[in-house]
Amino acid sequence: SHRRGPRADMVPEIAAAVGFVSGLLRTRGCVSEQQLQVFSGALREALTEHYKHHWFPEKPFKGSGYRCIRINHRMDPIISKAAGQIGLSLPQLYQLLPSELTLWVDPYEVSYRIGEDGSICVLYEAAAAKPPSSYGMLTCKNQMMLGRSSPSKNYIMTVSS
């Protein structure tokens, strides 16, 4: 039996990213469920197309900048295009979405940060761990995450109490 290599499709990662952005639109309650479905489908197709030749499961961080979805007082063109399909204008999008949002969609891991110095939250992490080659790499994201690897126990206590 031949060994299966790394999974080449992007389905779970893109689903996580699309679900996250749709969820942000949903929380404001101005967008109908039907619109959200159309938006999700359009965004999923656009991302699949955009990432097609920029997806390297054996080197998960390669092309990360290209795949990164970003709102930085400028709307990410992929999001605005999908939103256009449900008639959302740019001003409406700016009201519905955070003004600073970075969404990293990489093989095996999807994470986001709201605000330029917000903490990074992981949306999706594959159970099949990333290839060993990626561990030693210090990407800009890893460097930012190093600081949050061990929160002190008191901190955890105050949050739960």
From TrEMBL:
Gene Ontology BP, a term: negative regulation of cell population proliferation
The organism's place on the tree of life at top rank: Eukaryota
Domain Anti-proliferative protein: from-to ranges: 51-71, 97-116
PROSITE patterns: BTG_1 (PS00960), BTG_2 (PS01203)
Pfam families registered for this protein in UniProt: BTG
GO CC annotation: cytoplasm; nucleus
InterPro entries assigned to the protein according to its UniProt record, in alphabetical order: Anti_prolifrtn, BTG, BTG-like_sf
SUPFAM superfamilies tied to this protein: BTG domain-like (SSF160696)
UniProt record similarity statement: Belongs to the BTG family.
Protein name listed in UniProt: BTG2 protein
